[in-house]
Design brief:
The structure is a homodimer of 221-residue chains.
Chain A (H helix, E strand, L loop, with lengths): L21 H24 L6 H7 L4 H5 L5 H25 L4 H18 L1 H9 L6 H27 L8 H18 L8 H16 L9
Helix pairs in contact in A: 1-2, 1-4, 1-6, 4-5, 4-6, 4-7, 5-6, 5-7, 5-8, 5-9, 6-8, 7-8, 8-9
Chain A binds a DNA duplex (30 and 30 nucleotides) through helix 3.
Chain lengths: 221, 221
DNA sequence: TATTTTATATACTGGTGGGTAGCCATGCAA
DNA sequence: TTGCATGGCTACCCACCAGTATATAAAATA
């Protein structure tokens, strides 16, 4: 009988604090494999266009195998989406712990986050496209995370405006635009295409800088 | 028997050049109603999440009714997508026929296109999200149109760079970013929300201007 | 008014795919 | 060498939905 997929809560075994939880690690690894392959197919063929049989086939396993690691299809999508936004959020926060003038931090943030988005392009693209296939509760939670990102970005912009580094009329709008600009790359970027990831990152950085900086104060070029 | 949906080619009746083609107009009107309702549901629940029965119900008709105006579900999606991008393209071209310096035309374009995008938000959003549910050929055709938009925008930017009005390193990238910024509004804008459409348009215009203009040359504020 | 044509509905089919019940192979413990 | 746990597989079910064959009402035509 397929065990209930309570693998989510890792280290379910007794608190044997000495040895590693090998079982758990293997489980997590398998979950990861499923997630990656599913994401790949969702990206290429859409969520509804992808059958779990197809995912299983690519992994040379069967559908019940998947069902012993995920409760259902939607849960896979949830993990993809969550990963997508969580990565961005943590990266953002990490950059914010550094200090330096707003522009420096903004640039660093754009660098880190855009890099991340390109590295995890499929996750991000799927997450953006398939939001409505999430269960309503989950969708709400994810949207909240997304919003948190924009809000924090807005704060940073406010800071810059206050100290005169930025020239922005509506920081809320600018925040949406900037995060949009970064997200957008996941939609059009093609690995192995005309532009390398690092070129995209650099150009995005420049665009963002242009968007916020007070003309006279713009530094290097 | 359900007639083959050859309603697409309008004015199928004999070339009676005197009277109006009332039949055809009614047909077109019905197609339009179906399209709007379908788009609305696709927007709210996704393409695969929407059954044609549901569309029919909302219109107080039945599924075969729809099938006598559209060959299949994908054709409806095609028309939605095509409408989405076609609107933008024609608006762009229309603006380009006017003359004036690049910045003026760019601003006018952003105004017109963003307005259009907000007015047709559902079409645009569906078109962006559901691209992969189109038949491969159709998808290619649509992508081509999208690309045409970016290319023409790039040309305008090149012009501006040549005459010194714009300060852009990579006009191709800037074009993608700008069209991305405008498209993005269709994803987050909420009618009746905090910002009115015209505010969004104005702010988008400012963002775009910031992105391209050479600092010293920026005019009004 | 009889007859054909058009427009729409009722009622079905066939394929598909998410999800599951229950079986089997392997390994480990006693 | 039996018994139990683990982990996966075979085989199935059933809801759902795109698409269709056929009936019927309304309108156009004669």
């Amino acid at each position: 009988m397929a065990r209930p997929a309570n693998v989510t809560t890792k280290a379910k075994t007794k608190p044997d604090m000495t040895g590693r939880d090998v079982k758990g690690e293997i489980s997590a690894y398998k979950r990861r494999l499923i997630l990656e392959e599913a994401c790949h197919l969702f990206y290429a063929q859409g969520y509804e266009g992808t059958t779990l049989d197809a995912v299983a086939e690519r992994l040379n396993v069967t559908k019940p195998f998947i069902y012993s690691y995920y409760r259902n299809k939607a849960e896979i999508l949830r993990e993809i989406s969550e990963r997508g936004i969580r990565l961005c959020l943590t990266a953002f926060d990490e950059v914010m712990t550094t200090d330096g003038p707003p522009l420096t931090r903004l640039k660093a943030m754009v660098d880190r986050v855009t890099t991340l988005i390109l590295e995890n392009q499929e996750y991000i693209a799927v997450y953006q496209r398939e939001e409505m296939n999430l269960e309503p509760d989950t969708a709400r939670a994810i949207r909240k995370l997304r919003k948190a990102f924009d809000t924090r970005l807005e704060k940073l912009l406010d800071e810059g405006v206050t100290c005169g580094a930025f020239d922005i009329e509506d920081t809320g709008f600018a925040a949406i635009s900037i995060s949009g600009l970064m997200s957008w790359t996941a939609n059009w970027f093609q690995p192995g295409g005309r532009r390398s990831p690092s070129e995209v990152v650099v150009q995005t950085q420049k665009m963002v800088t242009h968007m916020v900086v007070t003309p006279k104060q713009e530094t290097s070029r």
